Amino acid sequence: MLTIAVIGAGSAGRDFAIACAAAGFDVVLEDVMPEKLRNAEAAFARVGHDVRLVSTVEDAVRDADLVVDFVPDELESKLEIWSLIDRMAPPKTVMCTPSSSLSITDLASCTYRGDRCIMVRGSLAGSGALLLLSAAATSESTREIASIVFVAVGYSVVCQADPDLPQLLKNMRSAAL
Question: DSSP per residue over the chain, as a string?
Fold first, then answer.
């Protein structure tokens, strides 16, 4: 059974954690705000799913196969949480982030596990279609793990290379000249 760590117990993180638990995954939900964890605990009790609640990223990612962060879609916020996850999670852990504006290539390049990074585009509220974006270094096993989880919780998934990758490579070549 895969262990999913969800970082952020706001409504999106809480709902995703519930969906993962309903799909049979072992789920750990983290938030630094005790009130958000209490709200999440009440929501889990209403739907009858067992989710472990923790207040530190370290406790959340300790055994995680996949970590999905629900921090604000801002570069500074993502870099801060990805830095923590990258340092604290075991090497096997896949890092995933929902984002409508950032580049997975940029984020992955700031980690020691560029092959274990993937991004989700699309709404994680409910079900529907999701786009999984991968950096050049993203491994096939990373795409498979993310696809398995998102399909199991009710999404249809399309995998694609980061659309920013050609421009990023062009910029790197120009800078090297």
Answer: --EEEEE--SHHHHHHHHHHHHTT-EEEEE-S-HHHHHHHHHHHHHHT---EEESSHHHHHTT-SEEEE-S-SSHHHHHHHHHHHHHHS-TT-EEEEE-SS--HHHHHTTSS-GGGEEEEES--SSSEEEEEEE-TT--HHHHHHHHHHHHHTTEEEEEEE-TTHHHHHHHHHHHH-
- Helices 11-22 and 34-47: angle between axes, nearest 10 degrees: 40
Q: pLDDT by residue (tens digit) across 140-171?
A: 999 999 999 999 999 999 998 887 655 544 55
The pTM score is 0.89
